[in-house]
Write a structure and sequence with these properties.
Pfam families: Metallophos, Metallophos_C, Pur_ac_phosph_N. Belongs to the metallophosphoesterase superfamily. Purple acid phosphatase family. It catalyses: a phosphate monoester + H2O = an alcohol + phosphate. It is found in: Secreted. By secondary structure, this protein is α+β, with helices and mostly antiparallel strands. The strands form 7 sheets. The chain has an 8-stranded mixed β-sheet, with helices on one face. Strands 12, 13, 16, 17 and 18 form a 5-stranded antiparallel β-sheet that branches. The protein has a 5-stranded mixed β-sheet with strand order 22-23-24-31-25. A hairpin with a 3-residue loop joins strand 16 and strand 17. Helix 2 runs parallel beside helix 3. The longest helix is centred in the middle third of the chain and has 15 residues. The protein binds 2-acetamido-2-deoxy-beta-D-glucopyranose (4 copies) and fe (ii) ion. One 2-acetamido-2-deoxy-beta-D-glucopyranose binds next to loops. The site of one 2-acetamido-2-deoxy-beta-D-glucopyranose has 4 residues, from loops.
């Protein structure tokens, strides 16, 4: 028999103990771009609980309860054996990541610690293991690339985000790789002190936003496809992107319109995120690819990312919209989830129930499109009112027959909730007369829960169809989707595309004369049909396919979209 020296025996015992320690590993540890997938594997978890969880941390030295998000280990099929793995895409937050696993049981749930939906936030008392650091390798170019119009027709703005303030440029040309022009981007950033309230200004919600670069491509020909890259020789260039420039001579306008989209995360976090946004972006990308070399743009009518003070959700949002926003200009209008906070300057008495804390401390500050802010003063005499008035009066309707106004909180809504009614009433008092006087064609609103073209007769102009509720809704879609707008000088066509199938569920056409052609009844899918309500009450106004009326109210056709059925605005 071999005699084992004592010290070897001890070593062997130590090894035995360390073998039963929980291990965690992550691969790869070097990533290139947002969306790259990491796999986190663990083993040796003793008496696993279905609440054991994996936390994502960035930067890696964040306190345990300052995670970016979490996933339960029980999402891995083999979790009961004490080992398993989870793969998920990671968004570049311009700092490193690490992953930690914690043991957590139902008896340890703290009812006082919960998210906005009253789901308990995971307990951090028992750390089991922490992974190596995951790094986004430098040199792969800027991220979150998105286009926007400038005030000049032959220009296109491109914005993008990098982790340092060094000089970056945009280079562009009519062919990929033939960069005939280069322009240096302006750079801006914002600081934690710029935020107005928690969580945006606190250590849980705040993350370094990086440097936001803003380049302008100038002297563009009309209606031409341009290729571009952003970045620098020393820090790397993006992959080539392309867009079709504006063409003021074209008789056609194509736009995709929606509100309240939000973003999707592959993990749970402090607030709910919006998986429905994946389908919205998927179908719009399909439609943009289908229109080929025609110019189009996106209009997002408020409540943009639903980050609500958790800054990394903005990184998710811009990463998610990049495939679309790098190809067509992406315009937004302010919503309550970008502004609303207790000390906001615009908070009149009649609006006490309207404005709350929806912004989580974030604040900011052939168709003529006007955006209005329902989050700041719009009553007669305010500077916004004067701006809208002057803008509407300046449109040459022979040249631009259609005017579309877009705002976030609706002027027409069948909701009588105390968060909606005062706003609707003040907008009807101050803005509606301005819109009707200036023959606004269409008003688009977000904020609510569905798709709802509205028409309602009013006491002071009883023959003009703007309906009393509940009959005023011509169509309600309870599902998520978006609107596609195509306008020529003769006709503006709006179609509503549902997220679940990417199909058209409602349609309306408005002629330049103001005449409205009704939607086609064949678009009545999934119970949201132009049903009995339309057939009876609406027949006078809408059925029969055609109806003539003077500009004014007939033309003020208002569409609401509900995106979040569960969410309270
Ligand atoms: C990220 O991790 C790498 C490797 O550990 C390290 O060299 C680098 O300094 C870290 N970056 C930051 C921003 O902390
Ligand atoms: C965040 O803003 C609120 C409201 O202005 C303020 O009371 C609070 O002290 C700020 N928090 C931090 C960490 O600066
Ligand atoms: C309005 O547009 C029409 C058609 O382009 C043009 O003939 C007319 O001169 C314009 N009117 C003004 C006031 O600019
Ligand atoms: C609005 O339309 C009416 C009826 O066609 C017309 O008389 C009026 O001049 C128009 N107003 C504006 C500002 O275009
Ligand atoms: Fe909203």
């Amino acid at each position: 028999m071999m005699k084992l020296p004592l010290f070897l025996l001890l070593i062997s015992l130590v090894t035995q103990t360390s073998l039963s320690e929980v291990t965690i590993s992550v691969t790869p540890t070097i990533l290139q771009k947002s969306g790259d997938i990491v796999t986190i594997s663990w083993s040796n978890v003793d008496s696993p609980s279905k609440l054991d969880w994996l936390g994502l941390y960035s930067p890696p030295d964040s306190p345990h309860d300052h995670f970016i998000g979490y996933k339960f280990l029980s999402s891995s099929p083999s979790w009961k054996s004490g080992s398993g793995s989870i793969s998920l895409p990671i968004t570049n937050l311009r700092s490193n990541y690490s992953f930690r696993i914690f043991h957590w049981t139902e008896s340890e749930i703290n009812p006082k610690l919960h998210d906005h939906d009253h789901n308990p936030l995971p307990g951090t008392a028992h750390l089991l293991a922490e992974s190596d650091v995951v790094v986004f390798e430098p040199g792969h170019g800027p991220e979150q690339i998105h286009l926007a119009y400038t005030d000049v027709e032959d220009e296109m703005r491109v914005m993008f985000v990098v982790g340092d303030g060094e000089e970056r440029s945009v280079k562009w040309g009519e062919r990929d790789g033939e960069w005939s022009r280069v322009s240096v981007a302006r750079v801006v950033r914002y600081e934690r002190e710029d935020m107005c309230d928690a969580p945006a200004n606190g250590s849980i919600g705040w993350r370094d936003p990086g440097w936001i670069h803003d380049g302008v491509m100038k002297d563009l020909k009309k209606g031409v496809r341009y290729y571009y890259q952003v970045g620098s020789d020393s820090k790397g260039w993006s992959t080539t992107q392309s867009f079709v420039s504006r063409n003021g001579d074209s008789d056609e306008t194509i736009a995709f319109l929606f509100g309240d989209m939000g973003t999707s995360t592959p993990y749970a976090t402090f607030i709910r995120t919006q998986d429905e946004s994946i389908a919205t972006m998927k179908w719009i990308l399909r439609d943009i690819e289908a229109i080929g070399d025609k110019h189009a743009f996106i209009s997002h009518i408020g409540d943009i990312s639903y980050a609500r003070g958790y800054s990394w959700l903005w990184d998710h949002f811009f990463t998610q919209v990049e495939p679309v926003a790098s190809k067509v200009p992406y315009h937004v209008c302010i919503g309550n989830h970008e502004y609303d906070w207790p000390l906001q300057p615009w908070k009149p008495d009649w609006a006490y129930a309207v404005y709350g804390t929806d912004g989580g401390g974030e604040c900011g500050g052939a168709v003529h499109f006007v955006y209005i802010s329902t989050e700041t003063n719009f009553v007669s005499g305010s500077s916004q009112y004067n701006f809208i008035k002057q803008d509407l009066e300046s449109v040459n309707r022979s040249k631009t027959p259609f005017v579309v106004v877009q705002g976030h909180r609706p002027m027409y809504t069948s909701s009588n909730e105390n968060r909606d009614a005062p706003m609707r009433n003040k907008m009807l008092e101050h803005l509606e007369p301005l819109f009707t006087k200036n023959n606004v064609t269409l008003a688009l609103w977000g904020h609510g829960q569905d798709w709802q073209p509205i028409w309602e007769p009013r006491a002071d102009h009883p023959n003009d169809p703007i309906f009393p509720q509940p009959a005023m809704s011509m169509y309600r879609g309870g599902e998520f989707g978006y609107t596609k707008l195509v306008a020529t000088k003769e006709k503006l066509t709006l179609t509503y595309v549902g997220n679940h199938d990417g199909q058209i569920h409602d349609m309306v056409e408005i002629l330049a004369s103001g005449e409205v052609l009704s939607g086609d009844d064949s678009f009545g899918v999934d119970g949201g049909a132009r049903t009995g309500v339309v057939d009876s009450t609406f027949s006078w106004y809408v059925k029969g396919g055609k109806r003539s009326c003077p500009w004014g109210f007939c033309g003020l056709y208002s569409w609401l979209r509900f995106l979040f059925h569960e969410e309270k605005w």
